[in-house]
Amino acid sequence: MNLKLDKQTCWLVGGVLALLLVSSFIGWLLSRRVTSDQARVTVHNLNARIRAWWMMVAVFGLAMATGGIGSIVLFALTSFLALREFITLTPTRLGDHRTLFWVFFIILPLQYYLIAIKWYGLFAILIPVYAFLFIPIRSAMAGDCENFLERTAKIQWALMICVYCVSYVPALLSLDIPGYAGQNGKLMFYFVLVAQISDVLQYVWGKTLGRHKIAPSVSPNKTWEGFIGGIASATLIGAGLWWATPFTPLQSAGMALAITLMGFFGGIVMSAIKRDRGVKDYGNLIEGHGGVMDRIDSLCFAAPIFFHLTRFFFT
After folding, report:
1. What kind and span of H or E run contains 163?
2. Is 123 exposed, middle or buried (0-12, 13-18, 19+ CB in 10 A)?
3. Long-range contacts made by residues 106-114, C-beta under 8 angstroms, separation at least 24?
């Protein structure tokens, strides 16, 4: 389950580092040349995002270098922080506190433990079946019936999105793919890279050519030009990375398209939740990106789909 330093891995890591170096240089160059106040704000935001990407790539690389357990711990921590942000936006009552204790400190670590021991049968149903039933039971036992259905649904939704869906990323390491033994770290790298670069390219295409907004009341910055340009570009990149996966070039393009589309829909849905709660970001932990949930919204929707497509067709 380790990320082996073979030739393919070196190309993947080197490509990401080269992209960050080029982006940093372009950001520095733009900061020296812009003159208008609006342009300065845009470039400042761009450079903040680039600095944050350096940090996130370093953390992700360190986790993968430590092997499967490092990746599982990283995504467990990511789930914990995202869950905390999500619950903070959804007002709770005293009757929810013991339920939330179970969610944060029992169900969440148990989900990732099941992934660590590769117990797919239970990991796949722990949250959508057993936790789904347990949460309303525990909340009802507290005796607080005010807005009970709304409060319970919010906790269930938070657990599904922030823990269950995110946990499918390190679960990729547990797949037994014929002819691909010991290389699952590259598959996880591929998934995260395609999902995140799609977000970046949609942002770039939208900033440069964006004119027609997709859902202005939900996500004002998302445009059809950014969507089409970002999805197409990221799909081509995913197809070009087929050599690091168990897929053929055409299969890799199809998988990348599925990742990018679901990632886009994830961003739209999570933006709708933010608008409902009247906030711009889920948090401010990551400079230029907002909170953890703002950065992984695309992973949440794409990870289960990518995992099951891979498991169904390639194992």
Report:
1. none
2. buried
3. 107/131, 107/134, 107/159, 107/163, 108/76, 108/79, 108/80, 108/83, 108/159, 108/163, 109/76, 111/163, 111/164, 111/167, 112/72, 112/73, 112/75, 112/76, 112/79, 112/167, 112/170
Helix (H, G, I), strand (E, B), or coil: what is residue 177? Answer: coil
d(CA 310, CA 246): 9
State how far the alpha carbon of 249 is from the alpha carbons of 160, 179, 237, in Å. 32, 16, 10
Q: Which helix (H) or strand (E) holds 105?
A: none
CA distance 315 to 310: 7
Q: Domain coordinates of the chain in residue numbers?
A: 68-174
**Residue 213: phi, psi to the nearest 5?**
-75, 145
Cα 128 to its chain centre, rounded Å, is: 19
Amino acid 195 reads A
Q: What average pLDDT does this structure show over 82-92?
A: 89
Helix, strand, coil % over all residues of the chain, rounded to 5: 75, 0, 20
Q: pTM of this prediction? A: 0.90
pLDDT digits (tens, 9 = 90+) for 161-186: 999 999 999 999 999 999 998 889 99
pLDDT the model gives residue 148: 92
Rounded to whole angstroms, the Cα distance separating 88 from 279 reads: 12
Per-residue model confidence as pLDDT tens digits over 100-146: 999 999 999 999 999 999 999 999 999 999 999 999 999 999 999 99
pLDDT tens digits along 207-243: 888 889 998 889 888 999 999 999 999 999 999 999 9
- CA–CA gap between residue 11 and residue 200 (Å, rounded): 20
- Give the length of the chain: 315
Mean pLDDT score, 15-23: 87
Q: Which residues contact 275 (CB under 8 A, 6 or more apart)?
A: 217, 218
Residues 6 or more apart from 151 whose CB is under 8 A from it? 90, 92, 93, 95, 96, 139
